[in-house]
């Protein structure tokens, strides 16, 4: 009979963000329309001076690095072995709001993104997205990115 070995590995910590980026828009307006309170909100004025004054400090700064207004919600970091579980937590908050998200995207010229941040000591989680999650991201035209933080 085969004995089971206990795994004494430290679980990775995963945080998933839904990020809305645009030139300038009202935190209150977006929050009211989505019926959600953001975990974080940043206007152009909240960026460091070198970014805010990019024409002086770096006239060739690509558009994606220029200061923008950013509204986001997140799951917060949880110990988890699968990205899809944290992603599901976040998408449940957005479920049924696809039409509103797309209306806001068009009205305010916004872009939407999902950011997955993974903190690990070397034990990597399963990075798998199920078809339902992918379909939802397509419906709201959201890109998805993954960032791994490893100890130094």
* Rg estimate, integer Å: 18 Å
Question: What spatial form do the alpha-carbon principal axes imply?
Answer: globular
Measured between the Cα atoms of the first and last residue, the distance is: 41 Å
| Series of H and E elements | EHEHHEEHHEHE
What structural class is derived from the secondary structure elements?
alpha+beta
Keywords:
single chain; 152 residues; alpha+beta; 25% strand; globular
Can you offer a commentary on this structure?
It is a single chain. By secondary structure, this protein is of the alpha+beta class. It has one domain. It is 32% helix and 25% strand. The chain has six helices and six strands, in the order E-H-E-H-H-E-E-H-H-E-H-E. The chain has helices at residues 27-34, 49-52, 54-57, 83-94, 98-108, 131-139, and strands spanning 13-22, 40-42, 69-74, 78-79, 111-119, 142-149. Strands 1, 2, 3, 4, 5 and 6 form a six-stranded mixed sheet that branches. Strand 5, helix 6 (131-139) and strand 6 (142-149) form a beta-alpha-beta unit. It starts with 12 loop residues before the first strand and ends with a strand.
Task: Summarize the model shown.
This protein has one domain. 32% of the residues lie in helices and 25% in strands. It has helices at residues 27-34, 49-52, 54-57, 83-94, 98-108, 131-139; strands spanning 13-22, 40-42, 69-74, 78-79, 111-119, 142-149.
């Amino acid at each position: 009979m085969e004995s089971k070995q206990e795994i004494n590995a430290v679980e990775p910590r995963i945080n998933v963000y839904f990020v809305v980026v645009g030139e300038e828009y009202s935190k209150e307006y977006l929050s009211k329309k989505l019926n959600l309170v953001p975990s974080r909100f940043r206007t152009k004025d909240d960026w460091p001076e070198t970014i805010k004054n990019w024409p002086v400090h770096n006239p060739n700064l690509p558009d994606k690095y220029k200061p923008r207004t950013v509204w986001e919600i997140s799951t917060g970091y949880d110990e988890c072995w699968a990205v899809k579980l944290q992603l599901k937590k976040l998408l449940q908050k957005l479920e049924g709001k696809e039409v509103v998200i797309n209306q806001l995207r068009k009205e305010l010229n916004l872009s939407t993104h999902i950011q997955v941040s993974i903190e690990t000591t070397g034990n990597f989680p399963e990075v798998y997205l199920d078809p339902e999650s992918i379909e939802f991201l397509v419906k709201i035209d959201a890109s998805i990115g993954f960032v791994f933080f490893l100890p130094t």
